[in-house]
Amino acid sequence: MAGQSEATGDARPELLVLSSLPDWDMEPLAGQYRLLTSRDAPDRAALLAKARTVRAVAAPGHLGADAAFMDALPALEIIANYGVGVDGIDLDAARQRGIRVTNTPDVLTGDVADIAIALALSVMREIPRGDAHVRGGAWAAGNMPLGRRFHGCKLGVVGLGRIGAAIARRAAAFDCTIGYFNRTPQPGSTYKAFETIGDLAQWSDVLIVTVAGGAGTRAIIDATVLQALGPQGYLVNVSRGTTVDEPALLDALAAQSIAGAALDVFLNEPNIDERFKALPNVVLFPHGGSATVETRRAMGQLMRDNLTAHFAGKPLLTPVA
């Protein structure tokens, strides 16, 4: 039962679930923990007021867990992130309080890489516009304008981590030439390295952003980078909305100073800037890079396994350093 007290004799740890998780996760969690969810309070403040005995939190990292959040949960021992990004979690505050943090790397890498390639193809070949062209009956009046070729293009990856490397492998199968920018050297890579993102953008036909979110990567794709990408270049973002200067991107799309963009992430999602919806040269996707049955099951299992390991006194499977 949600919020059930230990006074009832239920010794299971209390777990706060901040987001809506699939039944295949909620059912085993309900068997293993005393659950407190957003349905148990009218707002976040009221929920935290009821959560002072909570020992664990399960939630996507982008929902946020700052120092004040942790102070409101004095019994908190672990934050199990449902996802790989932890930019919304104050890791310094967690370390100072002895709160452990886990995430779900690797299990979502392939799906996010798949969607990055799919988005690049969608914007370059204008697949959403083609679908509307057929459904709306316009095909009978004439063909669409020509698109741009993806295979054999110069593809730049901003951030050659797990996901960036998986995108590069897939793009290589399309005979793309791969370049990349990374904050730390990648000595084993055979791809062309660039010293700045601007240099990479100027070289690229398609620029794909995969870096982690956070203060260190905020607006790294700015007006200067977009200018370097130029009127024949495309931007794909599967990282975080914070990594792109959105006003600069909207201006570039409206002025057609870049050819187009395909975005899985946005600032203020899901309440995105309305100007995106009127632009014909952008493909919009609802932060669904990992949104397959297979990956979401694997993410939930890894999140739950980390919680189980913590309360069993065993090493965490995927701790965040």
Q: What level of helicity do the residues show?
A: 25-40%
Sheet-strand content, in percent, reads 5-15%
CATH topology of the largest domain: Rossmann fold
The tally of helices reads 11
Strand order of the largest sheet: 8-7-6-9-10-11-12
CATH superfamily of the largest domain: NAD(P)-binding Rossmann-like Domain
Q: Which class of secondary structure composition applies to the elements?
A: alpha/beta
What is the CATH first-level class name of the largest domain?
Alpha Beta
For the record, the CATH architecture of the largest domain stands as: 3-Layer(aba) Sandwich
Key attributes of the depicted protein:
2 domains, 321 residues, Rossmann fold, disordered N terminus, seven-stranded parallel beta sheet
Summarize the structure.
By secondary structure, this protein is α/β, with parallel strands linked by helices.
What's the SSE blueprint?
Layout (H helix, E strand, L loop, with lengths): L13 E4 L5 H10 L1 E4 L6 H6 L6 E4 L7 H5 L6 E4 L9 H7 L2 E3 L6 H16 L2 H9 L18 E5 L3 H12 L3 E5 L10 E2 L3 H7 L2 E4 L13 H7 L4 E4 L8 H10 L4 E4 L18 E3 L8 H19 L10
Parallel strand pairs: 1-2, 1-3, 3-4, 4-5, 6-7, 6-9, 7-8, 9-10, 10-11, 11-12
Helix pairs in contact: 5-7, 8-9
